[in-house]
Known about the structure:
The structure is a single chain. Helix content is 6%, strand content 46%. It has 566 residues and is mainly beta. The chain is elongated. The chain starts with a strand and ends in a 5-residue tail after the last strand.
Amino acid sequence: MLTILLFISLFNQGHAVVEYGMDFVTAFPVNIASYYPSNVNNTLKITALHSNTKFSVSINGSNFLTEVLNAGQSKSVDLPNEVEEQQLGRSMKSVRITSDNNITVFSISTRGNSVQTNVVQPVSNLGKMYQIPFLNLTELILLLNDYSVSNWTNPSSSSNLNRTYNFFRVLVINAEDKSNMVTVTMTQNQKSTFTLSPFEFILMQGNDSLVRISADANISVLLTHPCLDASYCRCTMVVHQLRPTNLLGNRFLVPPFYITNYSRMFSTSDKIVELQYGSPPFAGSQRLMPSSSNFLPFFQSLKDGFSNITTSQPVSLSLIRHGSLIDLIPISMFSACYLVHSTSQTKSLAVIIVETAQVPNMRLNNGQFSPTAVWNAINGTQYSWARVDLSPLKSQVIWHPYSKIAVYVFEKMATGVPYGGPAISVNDNPDPYGCLVSPNLFTVKNESLSWPESRLYCLQKSGYLASPSWPEAQSYMAQQLAADGVNGQAWIGLRRSLLTHEWYWQTGQSLSFSNWDSDQQGGPEKGLCVSVKMDRKGKYGWSTARCCSTLKPMCFIPATYLILTN
């Protein structure tokens, strides 16, 4: 069956990334510690974008759950405690989620007051190469705790903490159903290789010499820390999925609310990067060396305003704070629609970035955006931002009909420690009618059917026979058919009434426009139904035909939009 998109995006401003798919793989590293006196809860929140979507969750290759969801319906899947991986090394405890139609997957790990969420990326968004940031967290930990700097840095001191405590762990998952050779590149270009079995993962201790991880096929790479200091004598887990090197950016906007005494920014690249930041009076530049591990010193000077940051090379620009590690969304990856899951009973908010001229058109679910939102212009750019409270423990859709936007979700644990990151990107193309999950399209079935059979076939496909009932629709249909090189005869949704012999469209409209081939309209004796001649050299004219004749059905499938049902 041939499928032809009816709408071509007019808003292709960059390489945005949608985060739905039909194949996902993830893992759950240890949250705090196995001996912590509280049970761990590892959960997947799966949302279907289309009706009658069947999904399956498997653990270590064995099916754990299979269920069917309707469009816009979410299902929380509580996983067994055994799925948590507590040890360094190889493991087969990966969790795979597959479906027969597009879904989104959101993971939640909770133990006591330690909460982490993660947008699980579909395999289609994964890659074969990842740059690994080196994060020596000494500076951040000293900010949060009453440690003595001299004791921390003096190896002979008995109070000096274990140095490995300062490093993140690196989790590498083979995302393919085949063996996959992985290469770890260190400083001085030293390399080591190993092979992962299908969907096997390895949890490695990070260090200050790890630069890059690559593989023969798609892998997923996560940074994780089981117990990152949040404040004195308190810690929380952090987990963060890295972007592959083909999904980096070079222009960013930094949320000002995230700029605190307890947060830092860093950039990841294996090249020399020239970085320009800010707008007057806070503007400047900095050269970053390959695999730089330093926090960016100008970050704290941006407290009084939003910062526009550009880089000479594509990079990952990230913010770290006790409780969270997030990648900033490059402007080239802004999307038109985001799915937002709130998981906190304490505090949930969204930070939204949109072109200033488009602020009045922001949408939340099926209605207008909150009129109480306070929008702040971003100095030196055409963008504005706002911070909006979200309903606790609820899923919502934030979208824009005409412009691409960025949406972050930030929440608080019961202890007040923040967590969160970018929301789930559902569609990168703005649509005036909603959060588009599938555009208007034509489908031409290769098998020939009668007109009544064709009508029923299209109805079963949630559409109807193509009905070009006005000149623009006819022109666009012809344009799309010509572009795809389709030929032959196909049924359209026009026929005569058996009683009056008057023409009418199956959509109920009367005939006010026609595109008959020369002398092809004919009387009722030539046929009561209509076909179109799919010929690039012609004008895609219509002809009458007997309804019992067999031709290809040409269906029109209307666009569908994300409307949450629970």
